[in-house]
Amino acid sequence: ISTAQKVLKASATLNIPVFATTQNAARLGPICSELSLPPSTFQADKTAFSMMVPSLRSALSSEKSSSYQVAIVGIETHICVTQTALDLIAQGHKVYVLADGVSSCNEGERGIALRRLESEGAVVTTSEGWLYECMGDASIDEFKAIAGLVKETKEKTSDAVQTLCKI
Question: What is the pTM of this model?
């Protein structure tokens, strides 16, 4: 959750749109309230394992570009994250899977899924690495805010990396 929270805060600072889905919310529950999704977040409920459902495809197609750079955080790396990433790659998008922001109920499945996604063309990286890649240069106006966020979340990021980044 801490990585998703950091990515959401950074997305607001960097003006990156956020898309979120729930997996059959009626049976499995809503998105956890700790994430505090911004009001502008596109949200959809789904039963498909990929989040690339028609309403999300439509929302993406209404944006300015036909090809995006997409960062993914979420649960069940070997199921929903994998199927979403593969669909996005097949549609020509560049996909970043944030290794410190994805999990699986079966720990061993996560590493296998991340290796597969990397071999399929996804960039498997950390949230901090992705944030600095998004900025590209310390001279941008948003740098100070993002650097402060990285510093503020350093301990939680370290814990997430230690726990989740054993690929």
Answer: 0.90
